Amino acid sequence: MQLHIRVLQIAKNETDPNNTTIFVGNLDANVTDDHLRTVFSQYGELVHVKIPAGKRCGFVQFADRSRAEEALQGLNNSQIGGQNIRLSWGHSPSNKQQVLCFNTIT
C-alpha cells in the first residue's frame, strides 16, 4: 500500500484587486533592477522592483492595480535586453494562496 499526497495551490493572483505585483519571466541575464524600474515606471508609481540573484526573472510591484494591469497588457511579450519577456500576475504579500491537499491510497 502506498500513500500519495498531491498538493494543489490555487492562486487568486489574477482576480485579487489588491495584487499589484507582476512576475517578469524570460529576462536577459544582463537586465538589472534599475533597467526594469526604468521600463515599468512609465506605466505608474512603483513600490518595489527585484530580480533575485542568479535568476532570469523578476518582480515589479505597482502602487496601483490599474497601472499594473496597463503595464501587463502593454509590455507582455515586449523585448527588454534582447529577450521577449513574459508577464503574469505575481504574488503579493496580501495574496496568500489557498492550498488543497489530496491523499490517495493505492
From TrEMBL:
Gene3D superfamilies per record: 3.30.70.330
Protein name: Putative nucleotide-binding alpha-beta plait domain-containing protein
Role noted for this protein: Heterogeneous nuclear ribonucleoprotein (hnRNP)-protein binding the poly(A) tail of mRNA and probably involved in some steps of pre-mRNA maturation.
GO molecular function, one term: RNA binding
UniProt GO cellular component terms: nucleus
PANTHER family: GEO13361P1-RELATED, HETEROGENEOUS NUCLEAR RIBONUCLEOPROTEIN A0
Keyword Repeat: yes
InterPro entries, A to Z: Nucleotide-bd_a/b_plait_sf (IPR012677), RBD_domain_sf (IPR035979), RNA-binding_reg (IPR050886), RRM_dom (IPR000504)
Keyword terms: Repeat, RNA-binding
Annotated RRM domain residues: 20-92
